[in-house]
Amino acid sequence: MKFLELRLFFEACSYKIAHLEQPNYLKIYTWVSLLLVTIFFNSCNSEPLDDINIGFIAPLSQRAIDLGIDPANAIQLAIEQYNTSRSSDEPKVNIFIEDDQWQKEKALPAYKKLKSEHDIDILFVSNTDGTIAVQDQILKDKVIVINPLNNDALLSTLNKNTFKIAKTTEQANGLIALRIIELGLKKVLILHYPNDFMTRASNAAKLLLDDAGIQNTIITTTIGNVDYHEDLLKYKKDNYDAYVFFGYKEYGFAMKQARDMGITAPFFGSTVLLDPGFYTNSEGEIVGTECSFFTAEDGNYVKAIKFLEDYNTAYNEVPYSVWPALQAYDAISLVLKEVRTIKNSKKPEEEFQDWFRKRLFNVKHFEGTCGNISITKDGSSRGIYFSLYRYDSKGVLVKVIK
What CATH class has 170-293? Predict the structure, then answer.
């Protein structure tokens, strides 16, 4: 019974009681009892909102932990803020996290565990290869998957339940090629880690270098390699005047080995140079490397600083690489904004995946810490743009002013 109907029923009961010709306590008792029973059943028939369960698969150990630990903390912070402030008409949200060690082979088992143990409705995955690995299963299970860190052309060809609320891989890494062109360098060596993100980073740079008529060579290295002497010696003899390292902390060893053999050409890197392992493995030779990166000043400065203050309050530290945490916070905040509306915007017969997919496709100019984010018709996002930075000292990047 709706509120207006209940009110009219109450007024009718009051009228009948007030107009009894003489006190008739049996009738009064009957009318009041009927009213109370109606109110009771009305409250019982108001269905409670189901919890929304979210899973997050991320690297918490082994490699690229800056793409896992800090984003996980950011997501948990946003959900805690939401659960604390939500009304009774808004569902509780739970988060469950699994470590994939940045290995695509572990993504699907991690997803199946999250689904079987927690029946998740939404899955966050930070690894591009991992996002691809779960495609068939999430569609079968009617789960929406969101990559909060990577957003590239390949991911945009995946199924309708896949969204990317993140930087554009091609834009972020194309900056390196544009910088090399600007500096007038003529012969470029690109080493890349063999996963989809770093492969696409290399190809994005190569396309721009090719268009500019700049000679370039791409080398795909093996996972876990720490000895790059043979390759470096060969390309030193060929007088390459720029070295690009699109990979993770293992390339710190390559930087050290290159400098030790007398290579003085400038170094360039991707978006993950603030992993402490990079500096340690390079024994400081990473200093001076230029890379694509994102900080608070590249996005909504006020909102970004507020987030970093809240993060510090919650965890007594700030992320050493801020962009993964900022992007993850925006992605989950955007999701939570839509979740708040579920009681009024989701039709009873509508499946969760259909309702949520439709809500995400309608997102336009969401004001996040990274900027104003919109979601396009292929599930990718726009609004986050990286800049060029230089590794100035241990754990410190400074923006390159051009």
Answer: alpha beta
Q: Determine the pLDDT at residue 44.
A: 45
CA distances from 107 to 58, 61, 97, 161, 326 (A): 9, 14, 12, 17, 23
pLDDT digits (tens, 9 = 90+) for 98-124: 999 999 999 999 999 999 999 999 999
DSSP state of 171: H
Residue by residue, DSSP assigns 29-63 as HHHHHHHHHHHHHHHHTSPPPPPEEEEEEE--SSS
Distance CA 351, CA 359 (A): 13
Tell me the C-alpha distance between 200 and 178, whole Å: 16
Residue 284's region, left for phi above 0, alpha for psi from -120 to 50, else beta, is left
Closest CA to 111 of 130, 95, 94, 92: 130
Instruction: Give the pLDDT confidence of 1-17 residue by residue, as tens digits.
Output: 444 444 555 455 555 55
> Which residues 6+ apart lie within 8 Å of 167 measured at CB?
149, 150, 151, 271, 294, 323, 327, 384, 385, 386
Which CATH fold topology does 52-167+297-385 show? Rossmann fold (3.40.50)
Size of the chain, expressed as the number of residues it contains: 402
CA distances from 80 to 17, 311, 329 (A): 50, 12, 12
Residue 327 scores a pLDDT above 50: yes
Strand 372-375 relative to strand 162-164, pairing: unpaired
- Write down the domain spans for the chain: 3-44, 52-167+297-385, 170-293
Q: Cα separation of 337 and 319, whole Å?
A: 24
Q: Which residues contact 191 (CB under 8 A, 6 or more apart)?
A: 218, 219, 221, 228, 231, 243, 244, 245, 246, 247, 251, 254
What is the phi/psi pair of residue 375, to 5°? -110, 130
Which residue type sits at 162?
T
Give the global pTM. Answer: 0.85
